[in-house]
Specification:
Helix content is 33%, strand content 26%. It has helices spanning 23-40, 45-52, 54-59, 106-120, 135-143, and strands at 16-19, 64-69, 76-85, 89-97, 125-130, 146-149, 165-169. The model is unreliable at 1-11 (pLDDT under 50).
C-alpha cells in the first residue's frame, strides 16, 4: 500500500498593499465593505458617508485607506481604513476581504500594514470595534495584539451600536 502524502494547498503570492490612490480604489473600498456589511448587518448612513468619500472623510483628516490588490493585477481584494482622531488616536475600521480571496492571509496582511501605517502617522493609540458575528476577524485582531476593552475606555463617543466587542492594541 502506498503511503499518502498530504499536499499543502497552493499558496498564492501575497497581496500588494498600498494607500488608496484613485477613484477606482474608492469604488472598490465601497463595494468590498458594502458586501459584508449588507450581508451581516444594515448599511447605515454613517457607513455610506464614510465609504462614499474616503478621501474627504478618512484621508484628508489625517487617516488612510489601505488597499490590497492581486500581485499580477490592480484588482482590489481587500481594504482597511485608519480613521484619525485628536491626540494621535487612530481607529482601525472598514476591513474587508473579497469572499473569493478569503483564507489567503490577506486580512492578516492588512492588519499588520495598518498597524505600521498608524505608527508612521504618529499614532499612539489604536482601537477598533467589531461584532461577535465576525469571529475570524476577531481572531486576527487578537493575533495582532489587540485586547478587549470596555465601552467606557473608548476614546470616542456615539460609537457604532453594532460593535459589541471593542479592542485596542496593547
Amino acid at each position: 500500500m502506498r503511503k499518502r502524502t498530504r499536499l499543502m494547498p497552493h499558496a498564492s503570492a501575497p497581496a500588494i498593499i498600498s494607500s488608496i490612490r484613485s477613484p477606482s480604489d474608492a469604488d472598490a473600498f465601497y463595494a468590498l465593505n458594502e458586501e459584508w456589511i449588507s450581508r451581516l448587518f444594515t448599511l447605515q448612513e454613517e457607513d455610506r458617508a464614510v465609504l462614499g468619500d474616503p478621501f474627504g472623510r478618512i484621508v484628508d483628516p489625517g487617516g488612510d485607506v489601505l488597499m490590497a490588490c492581486e500581485p499580477d493585477s490592480d484588482t482590489a481584494v481587500g481594504c482597511i481604513a485608519l480613521l484619525a482622531y485628536p491626540d494621535a488616536v487612530f481607529e482601525l475600521a472598514k476591513m474587508a476581504v473579497a469572499p473569493a480571496a478569503q483564507g489567503r492571509g490577506i486580512g492578516r496582511q492588512l492588519i499588520a500594514a495598518a498597524i505600521d501605517r498608524a505608527r508612521t502617522l504618529g499614532g499612539t493609540r489604536l482601537f477598533l470595534g467589531t461584532n461577535t458575528k465576525l469571529a475570524p476577524a476577531i481572531h486576527l485582531y487578537e493575533d495582532a495584539g489587540f485586547v478587549r476593552i470596555t465601552r467606557d475606555r473608548l476614546p470616542v463617543a456615539d460609537y457604532y451600536a453594532r460593535a459589541d466587542i471593542l479592542m485596542e492594541l496593547k
